[in-house]
């Protein structure tokens, strides 16, 4: 999973959005599964984009041979002031269905980026695997070697997400003891833009 965050000045949001619509060529790249994104509800000048690949080998091939040409054509580089890109190895689905089946069905993407102390990794992964879908369409989580985890969940209605955010998520954190093992957690709530989706 590739998690991209871009900071965009208010006056450039329209240009950025138009450029983001120009990534349709990804469909023809070997190993590409899907990409979705939109604006972060908590930070309206931040775009969040989640891209899913079959494996790291396919992704690296794309970066070496195809990325720069698509990027140059879009002229997207001139539309944002800052970008962060993180790659997470997928560990498990949240719930029973693969998140890739639902990439074109959600209206909200919730992404929690967590840093976890080394001795708590196994416990943290166990907790995430036991979450169940709790009203979401589906979800997935992945990790990096430095103890960072990404939990992504897709939602098809506001009410289910709000109930999860207000009641279930805090209860889950308390029940699991994960709060003690998490050094840092940041949550992005992305209102998905249908024209940014490449499925």
UniProtKB/TrEMBL annotation:
Domain DUF4937 residue range list: 1-88
Name used for this protein in its record: YdbC family protein
Family annotation (InterPro entries): Dimeric_a/b-barrel (IPR011008), DUF4937 (IPR032555)
């Amino acid at each position: 999973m590739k998690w991209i965050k871009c900071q965009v000045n208010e006056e450039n949001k329209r240009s950025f959005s138009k450029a983001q619509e120009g990534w349709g060529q990804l469909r023809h790249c070997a190993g590409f599964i899907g990409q979705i994104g939109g604006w972060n509800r908590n930070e309206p000048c931040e775009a969040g984009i989640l891209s899913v690949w079959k494996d790291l080998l396919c992704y690296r091939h794309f970066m070496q041979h195809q990325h720069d040409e698509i990027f140059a054509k879009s002229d997207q580089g001139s539309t944002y002031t800052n970008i962060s890109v993180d790659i997470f190895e997928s560990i498990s689905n949240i719930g029973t269905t693969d998140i890739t089946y639902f990439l074109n069905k959600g209206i909200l993407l919730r992404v929690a980026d967590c840093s976890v102390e080394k001795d708590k990794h196994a416990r943290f992964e166990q907790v995430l695997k036991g979450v169940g879908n709790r009203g979401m369409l589906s979800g997935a989580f992945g990790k990096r070697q430095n103890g960072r985890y990404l939990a992504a969940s897709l939602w098809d209605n506001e009410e289910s997400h709000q109930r999860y955010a207000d009641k279930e998520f805090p209860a889950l954190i308390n029940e699991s003891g994960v709060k003690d093992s998490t050094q840092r957690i940041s949550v992005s709530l992305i209102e998905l833009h249908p024209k940014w989706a490449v499925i």
